Amino acid sequence: MRETAAIAVARTVAALSRRLGRGGRTLPGVIVGKIAPELPRKLAGQLPHGCILVTGTNGKTTTTKLLVAALRRAGESVLTNESGANLRSGVVSALLAAADLRGRIGATIGVFEVDEASLRLVAPELRPRHLVVLNLFRDQLDRYGEVDTTAALLAEGIAAVDAHLYLNADDARVASLATAARGPDRVSYFGIEQLPDRLTDAHSAVDSDRCSRCGERLRFDRIFYSHLGHYSCPNGDLTRPRPDVAVTAVEHADLDGTEFTVSADGVPHRMQFGLSGTYNLYNALAAVSVATGLGLDPAVTAEAVRTTEAAFGRVEKTEIQGRTLWLLLIKNPAGFAQVLDTFLIGRAQPRVLIAVNDLPADGRDVSWLWDVPLEALTSGRPEVVTAGTRAYEMALRLHYAGTEAAVASSVDDGISRLLAGLPPGGDGYILPTYTAMLQVRRALHSRQAAA
């Protein structure tokens, strides 16, 4: 009776929250945690094919979306936290939304993106059969601390379950998480073997370039961006594991996407992905790795990768007033640097809006802006507008990088200034932090509705 009451109360609260315009994506999970804390485990336990959890600093939403698409094409009924609410409360709310009042769930498998610090709470409840760790970068320092602290939190979550791990071989700190697994037979690796020079990012901030065992600085034969690449410890304590699933060639890459070859268990497969950038290539690779481990038909996986569109705010394109606006989420130095390298560096006089907020979902500490290699923008003579609660700090950072920016009074004002500077048919680039991205999307939808 307590569980039935918890579901009824949570569903009512979710409905009221949505009516008030607050989404209702996390509060139901908080309520259930108070009334029936054992309910999430029971709900997840009904899924006949179990759960897949996706975690890491960057790429969780995109990788989760790719996996969901592949599984649905394979005939699975998939339950997921599509809204991107990836704290424990958000994951539990997704489970509740799929349950009827008797606590029955009709899905066959769950795929959930999970916040790095929340994995140790979510994993023991959901008992995933598969768990993928994408990467580890500095992110929200006021919440996570440094990379080693985040890695320790992830290791705690991994050690609590008997899941099969899929780890990024090119991220030394992620690869070292294999020691937290129940055994070497429970670990698979994915990575990039070959990448054209034009797709490597020499401007990225390096977040983790030391051996996790002896502390010695790693040696790199190749660096694709930040600290992702081919590495080894000079003392022999750590070496890049051989990937089970790997990108072996990139045949074509531009702003419209990437064509590449993946070797899965020694068999090559040609792939097309509609998102550009090396960081998105890793997201596709991670999804292919898990799909391979699940035994999905490679043709089904390839079609899912080809047809899946960007998650909201992640390389999302919007047509407005005869102009194309690219919405490119930024949240840490490595991700910001990849956006710069993929979309802006080398482009003549790009028109850019950078909207930086410091709300809790963004991280209060924005000192990371000073680690972004914005100096590389200067040669292109960009026209930049800043907006958000930290608009002036962003403008100051650009000033020291050699670029002067105009400061908008609001996100909507920033969009107006960006559009005013774009010729018909032109491209504009909006780089927002998470909460600013939500504001930007609302403002753009309002303009489209009024047109």
UniProtKB/TrEMBL annotation:
Residues 54-199 form the Mur ligase central domain. Residues 329-437 form the Lipid II isoglutaminyl synthase (glutamine-hydrolyzing) subunit MurT C-terminal domain. The active site is at D365. The keyword Cell wall biogenesis/degradation applies. Its EC number is 6.3.5.13. It catalyses: beta-D-GlcNAc-(1->4)-Mur2Ac(oyl-L-Ala-gamma-D-Glu-L-Lys-D-Ala-D-Ala)-di-trans,octa-cis-undecaprenyl diphosphate + L-glutamine + ATP + H2O = beta-D-GlcNAc-(1->4)-Mur2Ac(oyl-L-Ala-D-isoglutaminyl-L-Lys-D-Ala-D-Ala)-di-trans,octa-cis-undecaprenyl diphosphate + L-glutamate + ADP + phosphate + H(+); beta-D-GlcNAc-(1->4)-Mur2Ac(oyl-L-Ala-gamma-D-O-P-Glu-L-Lys-D-Ala-D-Ala)-di-trans,octa-cis-undecaprenyl diphosphate + NH4(+) = beta-D-GlcNAc-(1->4)-Mur2Ac(oyl-L-Ala-D-isoglutaminyl-L-Lys-D-Ala-D-Ala)-di-trans,octa-cis-undecaprenyl diphosphate + phosphate + H(+); beta-D-GlcNAc-(1->4)-Mur2Ac(oyl-L-Ala-gamma-D-Glu-L-Lys-D-Ala-D-Ala)-di-trans,octa-cis-undecaprenyl diphosphate + ATP = beta-D-GlcNAc-(1->4)-Mur2Ac(oyl-L-Ala-gamma-D-O-P-Glu-L-Lys-D-Ala-D-Ala)-di-trans,octa-cis-undecaprenyl diphosphate + ADP. Belongs to the MurCDEF family. MurT subfamily. The lipid II isoglutaminyl synthase complex catalyzes the formation of alpha-D-isoglutamine in the cell wall lipid II stem peptide. The MurT subunit catalyzes the ATP-dependent amidation of D-glutamate residue of lipid II, converting it to an isoglutamine residue. Forms a heterodimer with GatD. PANTHER family: LIPID II ISOGLUTAMINYL SYNTHASE (GLUTAMINE-HYDROLYZING) SUBUNIT MURT, MUR LIGASE FAMILY MEMBER. This is Lipid II isoglutaminyl synthase (glutamine-hydrolyzing) subunit MurT. It comes from Kribbella karoonensis.
